[in-house]
Amino acid sequence: MLDDRKLEVLRAIVEDFVSTNEPVGSKALAERHGLGVSPATVRNDMAALEDEGYITHPHTSAGRIPTDRGYRLFVDRLSQVKPLSPPERRAIQSFLEGAVDLDDVVRRSVRLLSQLTHQVAVVQYPSLSRAEVRHLEIVHLAPNRLLLVLITDSGRVEQRVVELHGPVSDDDVSVIRTLLGERLHGATLVDTPAKLSDLPEAAPPAIRPVLTSVLSVVLASLVEKPEERVVIGGTANLTRNALDFPRTLRPVLEALEEQVVLLRLLGEVNDPTTVHVKIGEENAVEGLRSTSVVTVGYGAGALGVVGPTRMDYPGAIGSVRAVARYVGDLLAGA
Amino acid sequence: MLDDRKLEVLRAIVEDFVSTNEPVGSKALAERHGLGVSPATVRNDMAALEDEGYITHPHTSAGRIPTDRGYRLFVDRLSQVKPLSPPERRAIQSFLEGAVDLDDVVRRSVRLLSQLTHQVAVVQYPSLSRAEVRHLEIVHLAPNRLLLVLITDSGRVEQRVVELHGPVSDDDVSVIRTLLGERLHGATLVDTPAKLSDLPEAAPPAIRPVLTSVLSVVLASLVEKPEERVVIGGTANLTRNALDFPRTLRPVLEALEEQVVLLRLLGEVNDPTTVHVKIGEENAVEGLRSTSVVTVGYGAGALGVVGPTRMDYPGAIGSVRAVARYVGDLLAGA
DNA sequence: ACTTGGCACTCTGCTTCCACGAGTGCCAGG
DNA sequence: CCTGGCACTCGTGGAAGCAGAGTGCCAAGT
Known about the structure:
Largest interface: A-B, 29 and 29 residues
Oligomer: homodimer
Distance between the termini of chain A: 52 Å
């Protein structure tokens, strides 16, 4: 059904349309891509591709543009990832290494990705649940108020306030600090419920009430529904090609403002090591049906870009993969 | 030069234009605002207002629209702040009180502001320099690597990694922790240089090298150039009135992505208790010359909104002020 | 069976033209 | 100083016409 030349035509259409943002006609295509056949032949192939739903045309006398399905085929079978140039790689590395802390790493990654791809970039903080506890500090803020500070191996620092029913002494706080510290040091957060379950019984009766308050906060806010954080940047790129989002910029921006939505995007990454591409209507999120999303896991989290379906997929995939790799290494080694 | 009626006409023009987004003509204005005079009279007044530079018209046969100068006069002399309704106040309060930590307070404030005003909201984290140290924790990450965690009275938690030249023992770390803790507890960050200057001499010689490394990081990253953070939200509102930013949406989005720019906006607040309004060309930031910015300090930081010059100033000022008040109270009491 | 040139057809986009209407500026009279 | 009247300007919107791009299909060539 689809011989090699037809696929070649499809590739040419995608590439042309991506770079010019204009429907591409048979004539221009035939001569510009050295296919060695006449426009008429190309037209026949185009008709076939259109029958199969890979391309369409906005109106009768316009050129063709790829459909979501066409992009899908292009991504799956016709394109190959565009690797970054060595200078680019060096630039990424040195830019990321300049970061002073985790926040900085994430911010820099976002900026990097959006500049490399000219799209909107999304970077998730390393997930808490998979993280390992490096330190748990308890600060005695007020007689009946504690602040828990959790530091993970990925550099994340989480804080939670614990309101107690009654006042507690500094000494008791020290005891609890030591107890918890021993149990949790080096544990991953998913393991903590098991590690902590017998703690109240094992502890001196005097501190049990306080201990349970602390434990409930730890379990509730760090383990059961650990806060996932996502940072976004480069939204100005959405206006780059005003033509891409005729009247749909609004919903896109709205969707991108929702943490939940972003998490869902990044969370759909099953296999964390391969790059995932969601094209147009494939997106579960309503407001992003006119966009494509390229994501990949970097270890403890995920990152990606969001842009028009008319996107430079090979470039985006290459950039996303490269940045994920560097970020992953950086955080693993930190 | 400008009698009361002319001012009244200006007010009417601003209000009409803000609500309809269409140039307003003499006829509609005369009848809709019950000025008690004929359109012809209004026209004369308009001509005067135009001579003074308060209004202009896009083309000969169109109605008038306010200039930046006109808005300025309106804001300064013709409008009065629209106070929020009691239900609105209650909603704000209960929404903010649901926050679990500082990050949450800031995020909620941004959302609140953008929803109240239908503009882009900007909220600065409580500034570090004015903050008081509530706790300084030193975590021994690796033999030659420490993590400083600083907790302020406003709830901010800052972390910095200190790389040491050589390994250090847990005991030495404890000593330093105690030393620093004593000196810094309750101090504001601006005071710290004074409080710490004699510390190296006062400390046991053995730990001096480590101590100076730690001190230099504290001073450099927390005091000399303390990291200011800003959160932004509601950018989708920029697309609400597509007509407001014909081809200028791009630079606005770009400007808003720059932390520096946002800080500059909020930093221009001299008198922290009054609301500041920057209209159009008054803005120092290039990309925001087509917008207006309404800001106010809330105590340890500032917040505000960014929108088209054609903005509901009384409403925006009221909302900004109200939110700032609640946020200020919340953080002061926390 | 596939390719190719030719040709008629169908659109869109652009211009021109024109009439309409909103809105103004000005003037003379109350 | 206000008001009604009136001529003038100018953008808007619709109709009409035209050029260009691109298609679909057919018949002939390889």
